Amino acid sequence: MSTLIEHDQMNNQRLLPRIALIACGSFSPPTPMHFRMFEIAKDFFKTQGTHHVVGGIVSPTHDSYQKKGLVAGTHRFAMLKLALQSSTWIKTSDWEIQQAEWTRTLSVLQYHQNYMNNYINSPLEGDMNGTLPGWMPPGLRERQDGVQLKLLCGADLLESFAVPGLWADKDIEDIVGNHGLVVISRYGANPEKFIFESDLLTKYQKNITLITNWVPNEVSSTMIRRLISRGQSVKYLLDDRVIDYIQMQGLFNCKTFTLDNRKPTSMNVFCCGENESIASAKKLLPSRNGPGQVIQVVTSEKGTKVTTELQRIGSASDESDAKKKKTDAVNV
Ligand SMILES: Nc1ncnc2c1ncn2[C@@H]1O[C@H](COP(=O)(O)OP(=O)(O)OP(=O)(O)O)[C@@H](O)[C@H]1O
Ligand SMILES: NC(=O)c1ccc[n+]([C@@H]2O[C@H](COP(=O)(O)O)[C@@H](O)[C@H]2O)c1
Questions:
Q1: Residue ranges of region Disordered (predicted)?
Q2: For the chain, N or C: smaller number of CB within 10 Å?
Q3: Is 154 a pocket residue for ligand 1 (Cβ < 6 Å)?
Q4: Kindly report the CA angle at 234 between 230 and 236, in degrees rounded to 5?
């Protein structure tokens, strides 16, 4: 059986429905597991013979998402582009980071879905002036039928649906009811049980594809940031081009490198790591206002005034605090 055609019980040929996959997240920095999700999902649909995956889209969230360790969208987009140079079918969309503010995931899905629909349904309008966005899957007009955009995520993101106030019920219903969810297993999550315990998710269960990743890898952006801020190696955990970019830009409290000799300079860019001046600055800070909040701290070192951008760091509760910050945005 080809990947495009299936045979029914009468051995009649039928074109497989086309789908595209979009992963929303921080990608700070992007890890190979972010992209493995796409490969695992594509293989799954190919093996099942139920859908033809025409493209993959990675959509980094807006800077104002304020998650701990989130570096500027321009950096995250640049790292994604570098890491995806070797992929023929996974592309990055900068639409979210170009918006004036954080965008709910449902709106991200709707925007990309509408764009593809318009393109497929208006063939007489040419290639939209020859300026198709880079994330568009190729060859969409080779067939007239539509392409369903599904949200691709790890099981932890699915379970975040239960964080009170983080996701609006009507958004979840729209995402699973009208788009569909493709969930990759992740250590510590139990998506089957999670779906069973939710009436809403159970109602739309047929639109949720659960896929077991038989070669799990618990690399995460958090772990990468931790290693980098401690000056430890992340080689073989990240794409070499991404490592080079992080070093050149001095991200994640990595020592910066000069372009010519690539030796560390004396300047640190503080993003998420600990050091003495940050530790002492933290003691002076008033009680925490919220996660990922960027605070300008002026420290004095050896008589020289140094301005340091300090991103608050702390316990694991930061992440859920960050999610709570979205509560107001979705409770509309
Ligand atoms: N190791 C992994 N296995 C399965 N899914 C993953 C893995 N790492 C990330 N994902 C998924 O990738 C998507 C993007 O998530 P995100 O950028 O928050 O990644 P993360 O590495 O978990 O980040 P952080 O550590 O900063 O929370 C989410 O759907 C998440 O579930
Ligand atoms: N209500 C929503 O639409 C909603 C809530 C929380 C996170 N998200 C998105 O989920 C993605 C992953 O978030 P985390 O990195 O916090 O797990 C991000 O792209 C973020 O924008 C969406």
A1: 302-332
A2: C
A3: yes
A4: 165
